[in-house]
Design a protein that fits this description.
Elements (H helix, E strand, L loop, with lengths): L12 H8 L4 E2 L1 E7 L2 E7 L2 E5 L4 E4 L8 H7 L1 E6 L5 H8 L11 E3 L5 E3 L4 E13 L2 E13 L7 E3 L2 E3 L5
Antiparallel strand pairs: 1-11, 2-3, 2-6, 4-5, 5-10, 6-9, 7-8, 9-10, 11-12
Length: 167
């Protein structure tokens, strides 16, 4: 399919980020086990994609050093974070070793880390990948679902964590 615009107009990067920061999103941590070690990264770019077949999508940055390891594993868990988990998100969102130090988890149905306190989790297998500019569009086939709590969701809005004003 050919794009509608053959030459897109220039968009100011600062204005682009400012406008898109007005879109509130939930926050997830994608986790897997690689060579016996838990690995993961924070991800607020996550969405449901299809009911039949059951697919979800998320968008890791091309600079991610964790996503290539997960790609090789081929299975992972999407942990939907509760509003009290912003520190876990920060810890797993930064680069470096020992990201899981002090983070409580148990194996999910597919063996990936299921974070203690997460609202829900989705076990997945890699289905496809698509070029998304400076990110990769990952399409994952859902293989298991778990609802863990009725806690309020952790939100990301205007480059900061937030909470729902009322439940």
């Amino acid at each position: 399919m050919e794009p509608v615009l053959t030459q897109a107009p220039a968009i100011d990067e600062t204005a682009f980020k400012t406008v898109l920061a007005r879109f509130a999103s939930g926050v997830t941590v994608i986790t897997a086990i690689d060579e016996g070690e838990p690995i993961g990264f924070a991800c607020q770019s996550f969405a449901s994609l299809s009911i039949d077949p059951p697919l979800v999508s998320f968008f890791p940055a091309r600079t991610s050093t964790t996503w290539p390891r997960m790609r090789e594993v081929g299975k992972f868990c999407v942990n939907i974070l509760a509003d009290h988990q912003n520190e876990i998100c920060r810890q797993l969102g930064r680069p470096g070793p020992d990201k899981f130090a002090g983070v409580e988890w148990t194996p999910s149905q597919n063996g990936s880390p299921l974070l203690t306190g997460a609202m829900a989790s989705i076990d997945c297998y890699l289905y496809d990948e698509v070029d998304g500019g400076d990110h990769t569009i990952v399409i994952a086939r859902v293989s298991g679902l778990n609802e863990h709590s009725e806690a309020a969701p952790l939100l990301f809005y205007r480059a900061a964590f937030g909470r729902l004003a009322h439940q």
